[in-house]
């Protein structure tokens, strides 16, 4: 075999390995990782554990649910590697052994991966601080972020708060500015100026790092949203990056492997939607579709209907709780009230009040799931196909 042949074979093997690894990341095996690729994940996490790769995890305005979720991540063949990874992150304010100055001194100043959990307060930076500045004042998380992000190879937003601002950035029921003479009292919208790393859910407002930010890898902030996010999403994305692979991202910079599927299309209750059979109230044990009690499945993208939670045992809809759209930009404001029918909320990828009724009506009339998907403007219909459907109706 010639040198050229060897190089060609090596390149082919590398390509195959990369494809296999990315296939692993998109695997839908509930609560597990495909055994034949687990060694690649273990190797990636061990790089962080032995110090050859450095990971820093910052926390802004957070309830720590994403940390708790990630700590629960497990897989029989990866348990030891995952356990070591979770213990050896160079900085995490809740799980590291060091405290005080020793903790901040242990933090890498140029991490391979900077992971950020929680929204970043910008109007009241003192709402999230740790450590001290040179003059002895509490140091805001926003300052740590602005220092570390440009030095990092990759930056990840962990959970919806870090990705889009989350509930900390909500409008708090405040009316629009032009209507502010209405009787109150109203709490100010987004009191602390909470923002995501690169996005907010307001079109005229960018995240802290701005829309043009890229880490040293050339990638934007990699968003892994959810309230809380799924441990598989965090650990497998980290393993992908540490192994030198770049995840394919969607328009909101989420890994498509996890956030490509529509919740509605994979839901175990989907057959009831197609037949027009719906529960009458939250807690109804009939097992029918939850659309009429506010389910945001038609507007939320993630694969948890198949991947499931709690080591592959269940998901929200299985216990009668509608999807609340926590993986999407605009959660909280766009998705509340949680239990009101979505056509009454103006949630909206399309004219929901009209499209939702058309979809349900079309289904009940026996026009089929595909027609219903096109009528609602979701699923596998192409944009021009959606427009054509809407204009016809």
From TrEMBL:
Cofactor needs: [4Fe-4S] cluster
Alphabetized GO MF terms: 3 iron, 4 sulfur cluster binding; 4 iron, 4 sulfur cluster binding; electron transfer activity; ferredoxin hydrogenase activity; metal ion binding
NADH:ubiquinone oxidoreductase-like 20kDa subunit domain residues: 63-240
Family matches, as InterPro entries: Cytochrome-c3_hydrogenase_C (IPR027394), NADH_UbQ_OxRdtase-like_20kDa (IPR006137), NiFe-Hase_small_C_sf (IPR037148), NiFe_Hase_small_N_sf (IPR037024), NiFe_hydrogenase_ssu (IPR001821), TAT_signal (IPR006311)
Binding residue positions for [3Fe-4S] cluster: 323, 326
Residues where [4Fe-4S] cluster 1 binds: 63, 66, 161, 227
Family designation: Belongs to the [NiFe]/[NiFeSe] hydrogenase small subunit family.
Gene Ontology BP, a term: anaerobic respiration
Gene Ontology cellular component list: [Ni-Fe] hydrogenase complex; ferredoxin hydrogenase complex; membrane
Record localization: Cell envelope
Gene3D superfamilies associated with the record: Cytochrome-c3 hydrogenase, C-terminal domain, NADH:ubiquinone oxidoreductase-like, 20kDa subunit
Organism, scientific name: Halovenus aranensis
Binding site for [4Fe-4S] cluster 2: 264, 267, 289, 295
Full protein name: Methanophenazine-reducing hydrogenase, small subunit
Residue ranges annotated for the Cytochrome-c3 hydrogenase C-terminal domain, each copy included: 259-339
Keyword terms, alphabetized: 3Fe-4S, 4Fe-4S, Iron, Iron-sulfur, Metal-binding, Oxidoreductase, Signal
